[in-house]
Write a structure and sequence with these properties.
The chain is α+β, with helices and mostly antiparallel strands. The protein has helices at 10-24, 26-31, 58-62, 128-132; strands at 66-68, 74-83, 89-96, 105-109, 113-116, 121-124.
Length: 138
Amino acid sequence: MRPKSIVFGGTGLAAMTGAFFLMGSPAALAQANINTNPGAQQKSAPAPMQSLSEVADPTTTLVADPVKDVTGTPIGDVRSVKMTADLKVTAVDVTLRTQENTGKAVSIDASKFRFDPNNSVLETSLSLSQIQKLPAAQ
């Protein structure tokens, strides 16, 4: 009995080698959504902006956080959070740190804010000129 040998022609061997190479290439693995680095942690999407009613424990979470106006310019820091008896945020007192009003505290309605939990920043829908016209907080 004579042993049989398997012989691949040049093109057959090249095609098989190419197919094997493509299956294991990073591009092919990415396209197949295969994690080539199983030890790496997957980054989660940043948390979305929150209304103040969605913030857990707003009196401790928000106090001293920076405040930005509608353009994203830093204008002050949270001095205090005003709440109802049922723990609903009604207003935020902000100590301004602008050239014209450093140290002045104003009270801004809670509906004018969104909270960025990723950066611990409050963003208001008011412009700096609107904020500067507000009366001093009591």
